[in-house]
Amino acid sequence: MMPVIISLLVIVAVAWFILKGYRAEPILLIAGIVLMLSAWLGGYGKILPNGIKSTGSAWLDPFEMIHYLFSSRASNLGLMIMGLMGFAKYMDRIGANQAVVQVVTKPLRHFKSPYILLFIAYLFASLLQLAVPSATGLAVLLMGTMFPIMRSLGLSALSSAGVIATSLGVAYTPTAVDAIRGAEATGMDVVNYVLKYQGPAAIVTVLVVGVVHIFWQRYCDTKAGLLPQNIQTGVDNDTSDVTAPALYAILPLLPIVFAIASSSLITDKIHLDIVTIVFISMAIAMLVEYCRSFDFKQVCMDFNAFLDGMGKAFAGVVGLLVAAGIFAHGIKAIGVIQQLIDVAKHVGLPPFAMAIIFALVTFAAAVIMGSGNAPFLAFVELIPQIANSMGVNAVSMILPMQQASHMGRACSPVSGVMIAVSTGAGDLSPFAVVKRTAVPLSVGFLVHCGIIGIFY
Questions:
Q1: In Å, how far are 360, 381, 455 from 389, measured between CA atoms?
Q2: Secondary structure string (H, E, C) spanning the chain
Q3: How far apart are CA 259 and CA 281, in angstroms?
Q4: What is the pLDDT of residues 382-417, one digit of tens each?
Q5: Are 367 and 418 in contact (CB under 8 A)?
Q6: Most confident of 250-264, 357-371, 429-443
Q7: Distance CA 324, CA 317 (A)
Q8: Closest CA to 340 of 360, 359, 320, 357
Q9: Angle (nearest 5°) at CA 212 between 209 and 214
Q10: % of the chain exceeding 90 in pLDDT
């Protein structure tokens, strides 16, 4: 019982510090070290897992664990994430991401029915995650392109903002951090993970969320006296400063195209690693950029954007991966996971119920922290052990958590995407926008869990 009490106290402390605005990485690292030392001092478990040599002092072994995770994750999973984020940064530099948004949102100008536009706009916004896997980055782009179109057709600022804030509320892109980590936790290739498992459930969920958006936004608009006015000002105005040609809209999708084309679903002859795909995509993008500008010096200068993106990924995402790994290992080392498994088996709790519990915890953590990655990365570490012990497929336990993290971020008033949307819409209250996102995503969460429970 004592390990559970210690773990709960540490988890509460972690939530309190993060809620107060402390950076997640050092808090998770400290919490993991405290849990590992508590496991050793209390005799509840050992600090280092099998296969990792001790430093000779138990007091120093937690730092050996940090060294192990940094060296292992920075060299494979971390390098994949760094490469993809560097590529995304380069796409921003040459205007390719903006070109994607411009191309996709252009057809929206032809819709005259405001709430049909709302539904179609949400589907387009969700689809854009394939090119722009950053929730905040995508929201910023959409606020400058899609938002004026929706407003020009008379939709309220809150309805428009609510749709954009949920653009990455349901995830299915194979280039996102959570997809890469989820695939690794299940021992699968990320393309197979997304196409066979994450994608089908996510697509149905997206359609459900889109339909609920229509009724919920109309209800809220009616209640607030904000019914569409069918004003057309600004429909034909293009306020974007995009200078890249429409052809550039293809470039951000290159990693996905190559990943699918070289997967076992298509061919058994060519197998490309994600990092290799990134470098191939970069070479093509740089060649296209040179053919447009014929300025080789500038093309070389813009390569700094790729390196800068990789550096920021290491400082942020890879650091978070390691910190979350240390925190999760601390929880495992103190023996809490095994106790939870024993309790679940004793009371007859089915594995799916455990998955829902973890998903709800992940959702709550995402709302508090304003981050979709941090809570998912912290808890996904624990799922393979639980799934193996209960004899179930880890995918069925990971997918509800994964989507819960995205939905929680889109319902958090302190998340980057919510702040970007609320301020970009004319200083709306983040809490008012959360009201517009919470109901569609809550219904989506229930539907998604139902799909996983029935078909997975």
A1: 21, 14, 21
A2: CHHHHHHHHHHHHHHHHHHCCCCHHHHHHHHHHHHHHHHHHHCCCCCCCCCCCCCCCCCCHHHHHHHHHHHHHHHCHHHHHHHHHHHHHHHHHCCHHHHHHHHHHHHHHHCCCHHHHHHHHHHHHHHHHHCCCCHHHHHHHHHHHHHHHHHHCCCCHHHHHHHHHCCCCCCCCCCCHHHHHHHHHHCCCHHHHHHHHHHHHHHHHHHHHHHHHHHHHHHHHHHHCCCCCCCCCCCCCCCCCCCCCHHHHHHHHHHHHHHHHCCCCCCCCCCCCHHHHHHHHHHHHHHHHHHHHCCHHHHHHHHHHHHHHHHHHHHHHHHHHHHHHHHHHHHHHCCHHHHHHHHHHHHCCCHHHHHHHHHHHHHHHHHHHCCCHHHHHHHHCCHHHHHHHHCCCHHHHHHHHHHHHHHHHHCCCCCHHHHHHHHHCCCCCHHHHHHHHHHHHHHHHHHHHHHHHHHC
A3: 11
A4: 888 888 887 788 899 999 999 999 999 999 887 888
A5: no
A6: 429-443
A7: 10
A8: 357
A9: 115
A10: 31
* Predicted structure pTM score: 0.76
| Rounded-to-integer distance, Cα 70 and Cα 73, Å | 5
Note the pLDDT of residue 263. 76
Instruction: Name the H helices within 20-76.
Output: 24-42, 61-75
**Token pair recorded at residue 61:** 């072994």
Tokens 């929201």 — which residue?
139
Closest CA to 173 of 190, 187, 155, 189: 190
DSSP letter assigned to residue 235: T
> Of 239, 233, 230, 216, nearest to 122 (Cα)?
216
The token pair that represents 68 in the structure block: 């192990």
Segment holding 222, helix H or strand E: helix 199-224
Q: How far apart are CA 82 and CA 89, in angstroms?
A: 10
CA angle centred on 87, ends 240 and 372, rounded to 5°: 85
Q: For tokens 């939905």, what's the residue?
A: 407
Contact call for residues 430 and 226 (beta carbons, < 8 A) = no
Alpha carbon distance 174, 100 (integer Å): 18
Mean pLDDT of 265-278: 81
Average pLDDT of the residues in 336-364: 78
The more confident residue out of 112 and 47 is 47
